[in-house]
Amino acid sequence: MMAVEISGVAKTFRASHGPRRVFEHLDATFPRGASVGILGVRNAGKSTLLRLIGGSILPDHGKVRRHGSVSPPVATTQAYHAALTGRENLHFVARVNGFDGDAAARFVACFAQMGEAIDQPLSSYTRERRSRFLFAASYALPFDIYLADEALFGGTGVFRERCAELVQARRTQATLIFTTRSPQMLRRFADIGAVLHEGRLHMFERIGDAIRLFRSLDPGTASDTDSAPEDEEDEEERFADEPFGPSA
Predict the structure, then answer these.
(1) Total structural domains in the chain?
(2) Rounded to whole angstroms, how far apart are CA atoms 139 and 134?
(3) Is residue 64 located within the same domain as residue 97?
(4) Is the domain of 137 the same as that of 109?
(5) 34 in a domain, yes or no?
(6) Orientation of helix 127-138 relative to helix 101-111, angle to 10°
(7) Edge-to-edge strand order for the sheet containing 35-39?
C-alpha cells in the first residue's frame, strides 16, 4: 500500500531569465509507514517535490495521489498568525485538519515547556521559544504523512535530543518523507533512501547505495561522522527567522 503516488508530473516555474523546468515526467511512489529520506544537491528540486506532495503547489501535468492526511512541512510558520496565542493557533490548525485542538495544545505546552507562553501572542516569543513551539507543533497532530524540508527537528541541548526522539516515535506511527543534504540524517532516520537528480527520483532500499550516488554528485558532502550536520543547523536558523503568517 502506498502513502503517496506521483504519476507523470511536470512542473515549470517562470524566472527572470526564462522558464525553469524542475520536473518533466516524474514518477515516484512512497510506501505507507516508511520513512523516506531524499538527498539532493542545492536546487535539485527537493522543496518543489515536497510542495507538490503537500499540495501547496499543483503540477502542470500529471497527478499526485495522497492516501491519508498530510502535514504542513515541519516548522513552517505560514499556518500561524503572529497576533494569536500559541493555544489559539494550535486550535485553529487542529480544527482545519479535523483534529483535537485541546490535545495538541496540551502536548505542545508540555513537550516544549511553554509555561504561560502558550497563552501569549506568537509575536512575543523569543527566538528559542519560537523554535520550540514550531517543532513541537509540527508533531502534535496525528497526521498520516509527515513532511520535512531539510529540518526534521530543532532547538538546542536536551530539547534537541528530545525532539529527535519524537521524530523516531512518529516514524513508527506514520509515513515520513524528508529532504536533506546530510548522509548522517539519512542513516539515522530513513528506511528508504532516495536521490533527486535532474528531475528524476532514484529510490534505494539500501541507504548506503543512495549515499554513494549522492556523494558522486556532490563530492563536498559532509562525512557521516559529523556530529551536527551543517544543513540541519542552517535550516533551523532559517525557520527561526522566518516570519509568521499575517497578523490580525
Answers:
(1) 2
(2) 9
(3) no
(4) yes
(5) yes
(6) 130
(7) 70-73, 145-149, 175-180, 35-39, 192-197, 200-204
Q: Can you give the residue range of the structural domain that contains 12?
A: 1-68+145-151+175-220
136 and 82 fall within a common domain: yes
Cell of 212: 554513494
Q: Buried (b) or exposed (e) across 114-149, using 16+ Cβ within 10 A? A: beebbeebbeebeeebbbbbbbbbbbbbbbbbbbbb
Q: Which residues of 228-244 are buried (b: 16+ CB within 10 A; e: fewer)?
A: ebebbeebbeebbeeeb
Decide: pTM greater than 0.90. no
Residue 168 lies in a domain: no
Residue 160 lies in a domain: no
Residues 48 and 110 in one domain: no
Q: What is the pLDDT along the chain (248 residues), one digit of tens a residue?
A: 999 999 999 999 988 888 999 999 999 999 999 999 999 999 999 999 999 999 999 999 999 999 999 999 998 888 899 999 999 999 999 999 999 999 999 999 999 999 999 999 999 999 999 999 999 999 999 999 999 998 888 888 899 999 999 999 999 999 999 999 999 999 999 999 999 999 999 999 999 999 999 999 987 665 553 433 444 444 444 444 555 554 43
